[in-house]
Amino acid sequence: MPSWNWSGPLVEAADAAPWDGPLAGMVRPFSTRAWLRLILAGGILYGGGAAAVGFVLLTSPEIFRHPAASTVVAVFTGLCALGLFALPLLVSPLTLRRSAPVLGVVANLLSTLIVTAGIASAGPDFGSLVAAAYIEAPLFAMYMLRRRWAVLIAVLALVGFALVLAVQDGWEAPLGRWVFLLASVGATSVLMGVIAERADRLAESEHALAVELAGMNHTLEERVDAQVREIERLGGLRRFLSPQVADAVLSGDAEAIMRPHRRRIAVFFCDLRGFTAFTNSTEPEEVVDVLDEYYGAVGGLLQTYDATVGGYAGDGIMAYFGDPVPHEDPAQAAVEMTVELRQGMGAAVENWQRRGYDLNYGVGLTFGYATLGVIGFDGRYDYTPLGGVVNLAARLCAHAGPGQVLLDHSTHAATTSQFPSEHHADLDLKGYPVLTKVYTLADLRPEARSATL
């Protein structure tokens, strides 16, 4: 059995449905909630009428001209009331609204026929009271039906009463009774027609709004579904791109960051010392274990310090600070991360040496302007920095000794006040026409100072 509330999504969907069912042109396009109220009101009138006639039949059956016929009319009316009360519990809102035109036309015709049969079976003594119900049929018709069909229901009611007055004897002043009913029906119908016209305009406005709202909701649902699918698809980029680049793409800044642009960044290069000899003499599984440990130590810190990973090449890692997410002090972040990296890599190196692996690491840090953007070919593109600051970091990393961190002059000048560094040498680096001043980052770890002493 359907269970739904009067303001839920099912009702909203029913209101947005087109008003194009059978006999829809005869009935005003009320909202689903309005039809529920009309159905309940009709059930109350049917039930009240059946109960009143049934009570009089039980207490004073002698006033009825045809008690058996009146009983049939009362029972039928009561069943109609039960049907109206049960209808909202048995069908969905959409089915209810689609069947409303047929239901409205049938209910108005039945009302006219029931009242006519009730008057005829009751006779003049009780029929005068039943005749008052004739006013209800045109009232409902004027409110529910289009004007021409409502007028037709009113005419049928007047014709039915006229036939009863003409055929059945015992009615006092039949013409006067009919004229009085005509005046009552006419006056109330005009008043109800004005109210119904306003309700009709309101119902059409509500329907138009409901259709518009349903369209907006449908469009919004499609857009949300498409965006969710896109986010899920792009979210997979995190497995292949640096988190900063993936976040920039997901945030809608992809076009801006993909265009070539210059920015001042700090570049970090790190690789392992003795790795080539190690791979030549060690099983591949052991090599993979070492790389996992190495990448775990370096990669975790890169994420902690919001570094953008530029790429991997065997045991080499390149990362940079300050793009695509701007950083207030890229050089400071790079050196601070490297200082912390020494602790983790120191423990890793000790572990490797205990296992007989002659491995260590070296780091090169530079600070300066680079051009950043997308390079590659169809099917594979990379977001990467280009320029002398990148090349110099690679050269410094290659010259760094075991556990040593080499800095260029820009990094030294920007960070030495907080992270001491000292002149290492003026190196003749490949591709550089003049000697390059190189600095080494002081190792402030207690065990390093003890070893120096």
UniProtKB/TrEMBL annotation:
InterPro entries listed in its UniProt record: A/G_cyclase, Adenylyl/Guanylyl_Cyclase_3/4, Nucleotide_cyclase
Regions crossing the membrane:
35-57, 69-90, 102-120, 149-166, 178-196
Belongs to which family? Belongs to the adenylyl cyclase class-3 family.
Does the keyword Phosphoprotein belong to this entry?
Answer: no
Stretch forming the signal peptide: none
Q: Which Gene3D superfamilies match?
A: Nucleotide cyclase
| PROSITE patterns, sorted | GUANYLATE_CYCLASE_2 (PS50125)
Name listed for the protein in its UniProt record: Adenylate/guanylate cyclase domain-containing protein
**From which domain of life does this come?**
Bacteria
Guanylate cyclase domain: from which residue to which, for each copy? 266-397
The UniProt keywords, alphabetically, are:
Membrane, Transmembrane, Transmembrane helix
Q: Which SMART domains match?
A: CYCc
Q: Name one GO biological process term.
A: cAMP biosynthetic process
GO MF, one example: adenylate cyclase activity
Short name of any one Pfam family annotated for the protein = Guanylate_cyc
